[in-house]
Design a protein that fits this description.
By secondary structure, the protein is mostly beta strands. It is 6% helix and 41% strand. The strands form 16 sheets. A five-stranded antiparallel beta sheet has the order 37-36-35-34-38, sandwiched between helices. The chain has a five-stranded antiparallel beta sheet with strand order 40-43-48-45-46, with no helix packed on it. It has a four-stranded antiparallel beta sheet with strand order 1-2-3-4, with no helix packed on it.
Amino acid sequence: MFALIIFLLLAGLPDPWAVTIPLEGTTDGLLYTDGRHAGLYIADGEREFEVLSLQPGAGRNALQTCEGVLFKECPPGEPQRVVSITDEGERLVLFEGDYFSGPFECSGSTFLIAQRETITEYSFHGGELRSWPVRGFSAWLACQGESVFYTGETGGIGWLDVLSGEFSEISGFDEVTFSRITAGPGGMLLAEISQGGFIVLDPEGNVILEHSSGLFPSWTEEGNVLFSLLEFQGMYPVSGSVCSLDPLKGVESILTENVFPLYPLELENGSIIWSDAGDGSVRGMDVPPLPDLAVDFSTDDRDAHFDVPYMHQRWDTPDWFDGSWSCGPTSCMMAVQYYMMLTPDSIWASYPSPGHWSLWGNYIPVEYTFLDFTYDDLGESPGGVFVPGAHGFICPDGSAWWNNMVAFLNQHEVSSAWAGTSWSTLTGQIDTNYPVICSSTVLGYGHIILFNGYYADHTVVVNDPFGDANESGWGNYYNGKDVLYDWPGYNNGHVEIGVSQLFYAQAPVPAQPDTLVDDRCRGFYRYADCRFWHLAGSGYDGNAWWTYSTGALPDTCFAEWHPALPGEGDYDVYVYIPPVYASATGIYKLQTSTGTVEISLNQGNYSDQWALLGNFNLDYDSYLTLGDYTGTGGQYIAFDAALFSPSGTGVSGDTPVTPQNIRLWPNPCGEMASILLPSTNEGVLIEVYDTSGRMISSRAAYEHIETLELDVSSFAAGLYLLRITIDETEPSTLTRLLTVCR
């Protein structure tokens, strides 16, 4: 046993590519597939096999029917299809569609397909028989008599009476995400919970049994539930067993101990077989090895996801550290760096050859301080090595503690909380450009990943810190950015994940640089040890960074503003000075078209307003720098927004309206944008400029108007600068960046 445990710890998570999964015993042999459910094969028990399909997804919905084998294929770049291989060996395509769920067995000679808002019954010859309207897009269906049970798109189990067309739902499970549901003996139904566990329903839909930890449940001929139990140390199993449960009597028995079983299955002769998590083979039956099947999926639709900086838990951390248990800290760190919270702490990572610079991997196992909190708690990593940093804080015993993940994100100014497991929660967050952290499972093993996109067919776009589980050698290659997995229960040909818990990861989304570069913009960069940087809690758009000035060179901390200028020309360059933590005389360095210019500015002379540095000729490579060296130590020096305004469109140097008094939403927008104004105004002028400095629109409004609607339906997609002039006792001007999407 000890040797096996060490093997698992060194080998890492099981490679879905290399795991053989038994699906169903037939009179001709055993149907089986791999851990991705790619390809479908039948073995005759003499180490010979027949290839039924080499397509992705072929192994997930496979059925043995009275006329042959029925299954789904998900070829990349082509419509999905239902295929039948008849007993005579004829291949028939019975159904095609952009995406759908199924096939699912209905009666002895029909099958069901689920599409958005519809469930349809087909004959084994492909003819449509009848259909029913349903809510959403179901993942899995099961027939019992004149009832169809289906897993809900956003959780729970629905129940359709096909005679009356009436719907109902199984109470108490509205927020639970189910992977699949299957009909069993005596009219019972077995529903697998995506995070682990299962429930058994009677023919009337009443829950007669609930099991919280059983994995890969399936029916036996006698009406018992066969399932796996696995115990973990950190991320890896240290013991396991195959169990059987009588749902009517509630009697559970252990059939086999001291094994690592995946997908236990009862054959027609009553024997039990399963996939071995250690080497991927099938125990209890001599099954031929799987052929080498590579599938190429790519995220070619940029509208389906947004970019999140990628980190690999093994290959972006220091060479001396084994990050195999660090999926939780690494996924959280990706979210933190999406919002640009930590400064780079570059290390050289040797793999993959010839090596690369890793900007944030050192934060995983090394102590650091951010916003006055020091991450010095120790957590266990492989080999009994205890380390501080993000890993130590999140993984005290080697596994990621959910509450510690939430605390870690909140302490890095990323608002987080448990978010349930529903599809609607995920899509709602992604639609607003918020990434989502997920405690998931792959082949029953716990794993933390980050969602950054999705498709309508319930394919999810993932930054997987362990790499791409769809490809061979999971964990050994630097290939986990923007990979495609399937949401629980859905089959689009990718690895299907389980979802145990989602976690919010919300903060102001950094805008792309334009002529305005705020401190939470992609064009703003901070450098030096992050313990020296502090948040002001006020300033342009409600935020600024500050540190203490130094009396001697070189700079300890410095920042750069890199605008995206429309072209070479004369620009008025402004910096925004927050109302607090700004008293030093900063030495700004501006790279112009003719060289570097130094401008000294006493920040103490300004408060919550723009300060003009001057007019300069700039080109595409121009940028602004400010360091903490001033010649006088111990003063506050602030780093907020910078504006590079084409001459004639810049902001006024007068006292501006504070950003807290102005709200612009939605941003980005498509048709209309709303501007909330202070009620004390005596009139307002809104001017809109494109990135070349050309005025696109100008509108004056009456006094005391509190909300102004701005019609942008005629604007081309892109970035615009809003110049908002408020007529009060002292007129003031504020600029805002607006993104128009199409």
